[in-house]
Amino acid sequence: MAGDGTDQRALQYEQTLMYGRYTQELGVYAKEEAARLREEGGLRRSISERSRSAELLEYDKGRCAKCRICTVRCQKFLISRVGEDWIFLILLGLVMALVSWVVDFAIAICLQAQKWMYGGLDSNVFLQYLAWVTYPVVLITFSAGFTQILAPQAVGSGIPEMKTILRGVVLKEYLTFKTFVAKVIGLTCALGSGMPLGKEGPFVHIASLCAALLSKFMSLFGGIYENESRNIEMLAAACAVGVGCCFAAPIGGVLFSIEVTSTFFAVRNYWRGFFAATFSAFIFRVLAVWNRDEETITALFKTRFRLDFPFDLQELPAFAVIGIASGFGGALFVYLNRLIVQFIRKQKAINKFLMKKRLLYPALVTLLVSTLTFPPGFGQFMAGRLTQKESLVTLLDNRTWAKQGIAEEFDYIGHSQAWKHPQVNVFVTLVLFIVMKFWMSALATTIPVPCGAFMPVFVIGAAFGRLVGESMAAWFPDGIHTDGNIYPIVPGGYAVVGAAALSGAVTHTVSTAVIVFELTGQISHILPVMIAVILANAVAQSLQPSLYDSIIRIKKLPYLPELGWGHHEKYNIRVEDIMVRDVRYITLNCCYRDLHDVLLTGHLKTLALVESADSMILLGSIERSQLQALLSQQLGRPRRLEYLRERAQANKKRFSTVSQTGSEDTVQKANQEVRFQISTEESSFSPTRTGSQKPLKPALKRPSVVDRISVESPTSQHDSSGIALKNLFCANPETEAAESNDGSVAPENRKPKRVRISIVDDPDVEDDMTVREIAEWEEQQLEEQVNFNNCKIDPAPFQLVERTSLHKTHTIFSLLGLDHAYVTSIGRLIGVVSLKELRKAIEGSVTVKGVKVRPPLASFRDSGTSSSETEATELHKLWDRHRSLSLPGEHRPSDSDDKSL
Amino acid sequence: MAGDGTDQRALQYEQTLMYGRYTQELGVYAKEEAARLREEGGLRRSISERSRSAELLEYDKGRCAKCRICTVRCQKFLISRVGEDWIFLILLGLVMALVSWVVDFAIAICLQAQKWMYGGLDSNVFLQYLAWVTYPVVLITFSAGFTQILAPQAVGSGIPEMKTILRGVVLKEYLTFKTFVAKVIGLTCALGSGMPLGKEGPFVHIASLCAALLSKFMSLFGGIYENESRNIEMLAAACAVGVGCCFAAPIGGVLFSIEVTSTFFAVRNYWRGFFAATFSAFIFRVLAVWNRDEETITALFKTRFRLDFPFDLQELPAFAVIGIASGFGGALFVYLNRLIVQFIRKQKAINKFLMKKRLLYPALVTLLVSTLTFPPGFGQFMAGRLTQKESLVTLLDNRTWAKQGIAEEFDYIGHSQAWKHPQVNVFVTLVLFIVMKFWMSALATTIPVPCGAFMPVFVIGAAFGRLVGESMAAWFPDGIHTDGNIYPIVPGGYAVVGAAALSGAVTHTVSTAVIVFELTGQISHILPVMIAVILANAVAQSLQPSLYDSIIRIKKLPYLPELGWGHHEKYNIRVEDIMVRDVRYITLNCCYRDLHDVLLTGHLKTLALVESADSMILLGSIERSQLQALLSQQLGRPRRLEYLRERAQANKKRFSTVSQTGSEDTVQKANQEVRFQISTEESSFSPTRTGSQKPLKPALKRPSVVDRISVESPTSQHDSSGIALKNLFCANPETEAAESNDGSVAPENRKPKRVRISIVDDPDVEDDMTVREIAEWEEQQLEEQVNFNNCKIDPAPFQLVERTSLHKTHTIFSLLGLDHAYVTSIGRLIGVVSLKELRKAIEGSVTVKGVKVRPPLASFRDSGTSSSETEATELHKLWDRHRSLSLPGEHRPSDSDDKSL
């Protein structure tokens, strides 16, 4: 029994283990509950399995029993094999490839239907317009409504949330089947509408959902799926699968998912990602071959650029220009997207109206966008009739549209003629396309439907690249290369570079370069692409957060900003400069009142547990919810009833044996008896830590030598000696407690009399205490010492020392996904650093409440000398002064006075 | 003064900070020394700078002083900018590109010279042979001798060592200028010899050397280069640059370096790697263009495969076969390589002989290899006259060599005809090439010269792929595709797949796929390559460690094995099952004798510091070297002289004031005085923790209440009260100590008399103590309590709890690069886990001493049920029994007895 108890406690430790983890309280409860249920399920299952095999044996005893046994064994072996990682990854890849292909197929059908409707009504422009506009509005409205009703968590890209989840935060309801359904159907409808939205972000989320659900499903077979850290690893692999099967880009998928979701990455998971993403991409492309869409497996947007001379060295400046411009463009996109959200949120009238009619906003945005792209209308100037995919294919075309600067020589084949307009130059079409699509995409991605922004940005980038490429081609009709052969400029190559650069700038990733190679099936432009992507990133990162980080801030998810490049001061700021010195803590020997006060005044998720207020030696940390449970247990009705019962019995005994002497005195004695009885009971229940039962006085105020002794050597066998000691040093604990709680002496001594009478009559205690009595009883209960036995304590919360640099702290926080860390000095707790402080320190003195909208060029306006530097030195001074007063392991005069007591 | 002292101590903490780090002792000293020197240098520099600007002002007071000030400011600004990361990375990329290009150029010249010699002597076969053989023998012997003399650290690939360094281990002399020179020149000579060696591994090392040297050089300008964690980050980027500039493969370089050197990777560094590697690859290729070798920037081994139909779906099984076969081949290569090393080490006669004539082994191996490749000899059957680069170019050729299975239709252009032999089929040539090169490469990479194995393996893989491809082409002359166009099979594509698969299998990486794309400039075979690489890795990883891990084990570098795929039991083993329970520790109040004993009996690098043997609360860890320093300080000559001086003064005083009474008594009193004087002196020197001066008795044996009080409330002002307390409880500490050290009472009391006489005469104390007296004095000194003030204590060593799973422990160890972690239970130290235990637990019960040679298929012979599982449960039982005896925070009866004293 005792062993079980400790085992269970240890198991509980394991859950909060190693390092504090930011958890939304409900999520934790849900998880624990789920784990318990699963455990029970496992037991039931194993029992049923055993009985089944026994049945089989019974049944076939006469015939070939051996054969049957063999079958059962094979079955068992197969089931055990199901636990292997690779089976899970293959299943995940397979499912995601199917989902991706089906979604693509459905989207294609939707888009075809729109075209067919539009084409069939070419007799009447108004009807055409109506068809062109109504169709997307209906689809988007349905998508928005459907996700709103089924699972609002499915809205948006999902990458910001996955980033948060992979940091160790539990987001409620984010990985459920409902969300999966809502996301898949919502996404199909949203993309089927032809709006400038992407499928890549949502696919990361869908893959994670898939992994989570598959994990749950597989846990029916094997035990391994119940391990939390394994599930996190599988989620990381799933993110890679999501991107991989969306673009048929396994390598780019893995890298993109790493860059977008992690700050530290386990090479272990990289493996898993590669395996699953490759399998998924393979199946995804094989499905296309089987469906006779393709002859063999090739790239999604295959290009046919010249291999022998892909580009000239002298073209590199143009590529660099694309990179830098894309950097600014990407920052602008993020800014614009956030500005729109901000605007709608701030305008209270609009907001109120939209909140009431939730579907109005999507419908309005869709109406606006589709009106502007109406092909016979403004759409004719911006290739409005092309779908996103068609636009991209034409933009990556290896022919030059504007040879010799004349749009007339345009080689009209397939969809490419959409870019040609009889009156307008192809350059104008491209510029219009870029400008219009830019704000349209920024606006469209704010619609509350499942959607990503990667693909629209990618297309805009390709268009921008094409524009530069066509300009170059017009400028150098015979190419730049001077000696020998003539190599004309390939504008399609510029489009590839532009696509990679702009999408890289918006997402702050370099792996878009790899995605581009895998999408186009050509790697010949590797150096221009890499240079442009790196330049774009350098520019964009210095101006704005990435789109995903921006959404994280908008949604107020917990996050840790990245350390920028070359911020030297980050190495010079120390933890002591940023830590909070006024740590909320509880002592091992505190009473429930202290607990109550601490819970009332602070709002921290976890509280430090120190040995005593005097030594401040950090023993561990306890979650707030645990303390709340402790408190409610102490003050709860069951305990009160128990108290009444105890008292009744004590009174009975007293009535039968003790003669009526000074009643005041007896009451006190009875009280004492009750208390000790309770504590003995508890000690038999969980014998590990009952020695911590100590005199009922607030330990925070008057620590004594005896206190410390009893903390350090708690015992289960020596309760009596402990009590004796207590009596020795604190003559009457009860009265002392009453004294400290001045004013309440009288009622406390008066109360039991009346209650006693009612209890003597009834052995099955009734709760007949008045409100006032309950309050009194609670007061009394609050004075008792806390029993931490049934409380989950994280025994090794993460510790830093005061000289740890900000840089190192950031590393540790992001490595371990910490929410907070305690700062100790040789065991003594001296401060705490949480994500908030770290965030503040990294982002300067600006307090980030919700979103901080900074115009794209704001950082250039920042003065060169950072304020944090001076702040730090000032804090240093302060701390030096402070330290001279309270050195670690220091001895205060008052303490020595205490000792001489 | 006091503030400075603590600051300095805090700084010292910072160095050993956050988590224990495996450091070779000398390395630490060297580093500290270097840091100190640098700091001094910085001071000197800033002073000189100030004076310089002052001088300038003086000089130009008359003329345009403002202009001068402006110049100085600009200069300062530029110098401060030098600290930026990107400048460092660009410089690194530039330097490495230049080094790579120069090395390549030199190698090309060397190889040309050999060909020229060989070609010029075509009149006489014997002379030809002599020239063919002598040339590489001389070069290799020179390379081996040169590196042996200049820097033996430069031998080999360098990747294993970089992996170890990036784990946080300091390897001595590994990143010095000498090593750089030895590596570059040695590598050039080794590769110039035409032996099957690679340049990629050494380039990782060269890039790291370059980064380290550049860091040192840049630290002359800015302060940021002194930060250790930054340097580690820069080394990680440098590894990427190394691969990137070697193959002009920035993406593959970054990924390969991540896979090969890290287990956890910061996305931050990934950025840096991309930036530097791209720049480096760019410059590397631009140099080729400027040198008129190339027309524009293209891939290193450009292929020209068909774009529209790269491969048929039905060819995939063939690709899969290449992958699986490469997996076995890769494992065999690693095994063979290690077997050769083992064989030479084991054969003591050979070993002895070779150790004497160090250059004989390289010469012999070179002689053997070059004899066999002699073109007119056996070389004619294995394309012996082609250099490595030429072989690769021909193998990746997009023409089919064996059309219709007949070698006669061979399209002889360029070097391709080397594969053709009048008598022998091209298949035989390929098979011979593969078999011969296989063992030659495995043998050649054991030569003690700077060399890698990547490129030879890559070429062998390409040959194997080609073989399969040619076979397929012979089997299906018109391709497999049935409907429509005829697409013949492209054997070059198979060569690409084979190269990626075999090199991936040997190095256990998937990024070879990316390297292959970047090397060939074509990504059309992405799916076959990925599938083959993943299959090869799956096979190879289940059979053998990677080549680099194998070398790490051969060299006995500290390492942590990877957790394999799907080893479920890893989630079930707990830290308590593998930890060492018998932890070596020292207590805060121990005496020097305990220190002495602990140092004598154990060989651990760091020791735990606990509050007391009773409470076992972990306070921190101390390095062994620190303790040794403490001990030698306590027993050193300066202290003895000081002791003599003190005693002389005390005697003087006594002679002048005190009359001669009972001499025995007075001596004792004098002794006491001396002791207290010393302790007071120390307390004024560093006032933080003198309260820990306690009665001179071994705290391990008899902890008392008083002990604890004085530990918890140490004081600098209350020394006297502390002494009073001590006197109160331990009436005569000196005699008590003497008693505990029984037998030594008499000499101790006799000794001072004689010495006293000699001192009274001479105030400048002479060390005239006899050996016996010194021994006695040392005995006495050993009884004193340890003063930890001047000792670097790591106040936050990493802690685990007993229920932490092996999986989590592995993660934490590899994340933080730990060497050991303490296992605590609510503050109490209960065990320690080091890399060794973890390694044992992961690798099963096998003790890995040096190399464990396992035949490639050994793991298939392992029984399915792992022994660790049963071991774990047994240990669990044991632990449960153990725990019931010593619970955390438990109270022993003896303690309560103590309390009643």
Please give a structural write-up.
2 copies of one chain form a homodimer. The first copy, chain A, has 901 residues and is mainly alpha-helical. Chain A is built from 37 helices and 8 strands. Chain A has a 4-stranded mixed sheet with strand order 2-3-4-5. In chain A, α18 packs antiparallel against α19 (512-520) and α33 (806-816) crosses α34. Chains A, B: Residues 680-704 are annotated as: Disordered. Chains A, B: The chain crosses the membrane at residues 86-109, 129-151, 203-222, 234-258, 270-290, 316-338, 359-378, 426-447, 454-476.
Please estimate the helix content of chain A. 55-70%
Q: Major sheet of chain A: order of its strands?
A: 2-3-4-5
Number of helical stretches of at least 4 residues of chain A = 37
Protein chain pair with the most extensive contact, residues per chain: A-B, 138 and 133 residues
Q: State mean pLDDT of chain A (0 to 100 scale).
A: 72
**Which descriptor suits the 3D outline of chain A?**
elongated
Q: Nearest-angstrom radius of gyration of chain A?
A: 35 Å
Quaternary status: homodimer
Subcellular location (chains A, B): Basolateral cell membrane; Cell projection, Axon; Cell projection, Dendritic spine membrane
Transmembrane segments (chains A, B): 86-109, 129-151, 203-222, 234-258, 270-290, 316-338, 359-378, 426-447, 454-476
Keywords (chains A, B): CBS domain, Cell membrane, Cell projection, Chloride, Chloride channel, Ion channel, Ion transport, Membrane, Phosphoprotein, Postsynaptic cell membrane, Repeat, Synapse, Transmembrane, Transmembrane helix, Transport, Voltage-gated channel
Subunit structure (chains A, B): Homodimer. Interacts with auxiliary subunit HEPACAM.
